[in-house]
Write a structure and sequence with these properties.
It contains ten helices and 23 strands. With 502 residues, it is an alpha+beta fold. Strands 9-17-18-19-16-22 form a six-stranded antiparallel sheet, covered by helices on one side. Strands 11-2-1-15-23 form a five-stranded parallel sheet, with helices on one face. The chain has a three-stranded mixed sheet with strand order 8-7-10. Helix 1 runs parallel beside helix 5 and helix 3 packs across helix 10. 52% of the residues are buried.
Amino acid sequence: MNPHFDIIIIGTGAGGGTMARALSATGARILILERGGFVPQEAENWSPEAVWRQLRYQTKERWLDDRGRDFSPYTHYNVGGNTKFWGSVLYRLRREDFQAVPHLDGLSPAWPIDYDTLAPFYERAERLYHVRGAIGDDPTEPPRGPYPYEAVPHSAGMTEIVERLRAQGLHPSPLPLGVIRPGEQDGCILCNTCNSFACRIHAKSEAEVCGIGPALQHPNVTLWTDACALRLVADPSGQRVAAVDVERNGETVRVEAPLFVVSCGAVNSAALLLRSASESRPTGLANSSGLVGKRYMAHLATMMQGFHPFRPNTTVFQKTVAINDFYLRGPDNEYPLGQIQSQGRTHGVMAQAVVPWIPVWAYEAWVSRGVDWLVMSEDLPDEANRVTLAPDGRIQLFYRPNNLAPHRTLVKETARILRRLGFWIVVTHSHGSRNTTHQCGTLCFGTDPRRSVLDPFCRAHDISNLFVVDASFFPSSAAVNPGLTIIAQALRTADHIIANDL
């Protein structure tokens, strides 16, 4: 007899982890499936050598690019998903991001909901994930109440930079960060191994800490780790999911439920629906629109570092400031450029991953005198950018970044800003067409089943008992980190399920 639950949630990241917590108090029997295990709290969590050279926590899975060449995606299979390794920057989308916005290379389409619809869920999401920030300095900040927690203070070095940015006529603002009880006993210690590292003391706001852990306090919630969902099994009508086939402990188990939530990330959620093709759904589950896997987006992202040979950077926790002056329009035209964020400190081993032949000691000398930044621009939806399955079943990513000219303009503008700050040299690095961070858009939500895969509550148009809650529902990528929007929509979807399906 197949195991039976009331709700099955596949994935434990920002979407699945939040859904699990939001639904846990209903009393419904919930099974959470995670293909990986728990990330152990160990010394290697904070080791640049372990994280960046040995790739201790990154998946060993290989994907294919558009030319059929395999590559190692930057993704993680573990409880908490990629949130375990994010920098915990938790922005609301700007009000304009929900509207149709012309860009130099095309149109960023409108969402089927507006900012006001999601605003109360953003507020709940910020409380749930301990977001720290301040209002008043950001020229693009949408209408909102105060943050639930005060912003992380700038270090002395970053305070000086902020003052000099203001002297340039810019409007630097605090980054909204999910860190738990900084400076308090057992709280965040504001270290230099936050961005891309797991938190050894569980003081970073991520989905295991804020979602899965609290959900498991309820006796009706069960978590299976090392349990990979192979395919969703439709009922004879093809209009409902009856079960999921799960690879666990070396065997395949079929698990049944009347309600399913898929939260595997934009790439893997699309791949799961494509793998779930059947006689009644030959092109994949929930794919009457033909859009499953299409419109893949990843932000145009360039890492930058300002370097001064005689100015050591003594800041430990550097990631506290953003510049949004060019988010809605550039300095010389009406088109948006994107956002500039300070970043966590680069370690020598991380830099060596880009150019391996330079010794680590040389990189350490370099990065100790550098200040790190991220320049991020919007990637526009294009049906040619897509996730598919290769003949051997592996994930294949067809992706060509677009909207490149505005991003180059923002990189040049940032370089000018850094040079005016006194940095002698500015270096840049980008992941290009193999970018798998901030992945979104492969199962777009909307009101028209012919032009979208999911409805505005993330229920599949074709499958009445299937919800997909991760960044795959995004119609556009905007130019801020997607995490808080996933969390807010998860809370909204959970409320809808409680009111209509339980």
